[in-house]
Request: fold
Amino acid sequence: MKARLCLHGVDVKHQAQLLGLVKKELAGHSVSYKVKEHYFENNDMYKCRVAHFKPKGEQVALHILCMWGVLLVSDKPINVADIIIEYEPGTLSQARVSDLVTSFLQGKLHFVLDEPDLARRIALLRGSYFLDKLPYYDESTAMTALRCHVPWHLYVINKLWEQLLLSGGGQRQLWRQLRVKLRRLRSVLSLVKPLFGKMSLCQSMLKEKAAALSAVREYDVLLQTCERLRGSQVRAERAALPLRQQGSEPVAQSTLLPAREAVPSLQHLLAGLRQQAQARVLQQLELNAVTNELAQIYLYLLTAANAPCDRGLQEFFAQRLGKWAKKLQQQGVQPELGDMEQLHRVRIKLKRFRYALQCVPEVGAMPQLLRSLKSLQDLLGVVHDDYVNDNYLQQLVAAHDELPELRYEVALLRGYEQAKADGALEQLIAQWQEFNRLLNEWVEGLE
Reply:
């Protein structure tokens, strides 16, 4: 089965830039041109000029297309500036593909991985990209997981990296979205690991990127807690307003609300530290380097997908997820012991299981089970954040003697966090019992 890899140029202004880059790497190739145009429902369409590069006088299994044009999706024009490489996985041409990708990404133009088929790219942009509708979806082999279930994660993650790295950091929400998408990809790769064997280098690259984002995430969590504390104070003032107005002239509500942050010095310090952590991440990473890493994962998986496999897709997913579920059934959660490290390990397993379930529609996870997993994950997240923040904030106070008010503000924030963590621990046992009930019901349905 032929494979296709697409590098989409995100800042290509002229077709000549794209053609020049390809011609530089494919000296001695002949070029033929044609125009492709197609119209879809909802007034979506694409129109592109396609340059097809072929070696002179040779018959090879490697084809390079250079596409320039426009997509129209939901009345929004989107540029097409693509280099598409078509090859046979597992052949000598694949080594050439890897070299070509690396060469294309060493220039000044920025690229991301994208869906090679423009019709399916439109579906991806519209949110109607269904795995079982892909032409290479084959439920009789588990290798379909490598061809269908993984690539679209790479496309989405690469585009989020583009937004983050080319925007100079973007909004806090963008950092969170990228962390979540990376977790999903790592969960899916763990799920399908028996299909491709060892891929330690690729997994370590993804883990490294997740760790880089986590350095900023810790400050985001603390800043969000500061904002929630201020919100709780505002609500408390509003609730007290009627009582304060009794027996006196009406008081303007605006004069009763806090005029500044609840913990101003702490919030200012954390914002500065977050900015420094963000700058370090952005300084260390470059979009084309990230794209190259994701492209190598893509190439590796499509090669592995050519191996023979006698297991069906649904059977494979049921066995793998059933094995994970049984390990969770054997996992005891005892929050009363205060073993935060154990709780953190449980949270990681729950998160991995939930993300894998969401990415595998073939097993039909119950909505109630997914909601229960999310509730447990959130409760354990509150407990873990409280534990980690306690240690960090103590170190922060010790490192800033020049801010005497910091000790008071940290104590105020810690009291607010501790109350939330205590409430989460009280709910944890009941939530775990409900999760176990739903999990047992789901596992029985698999057998």
In short: Confidence is low (pLDDT under 50) at residues 253-259. Strands lie at 3-9, 29-39, 45-55, 63-73, 76-87, 111-114.
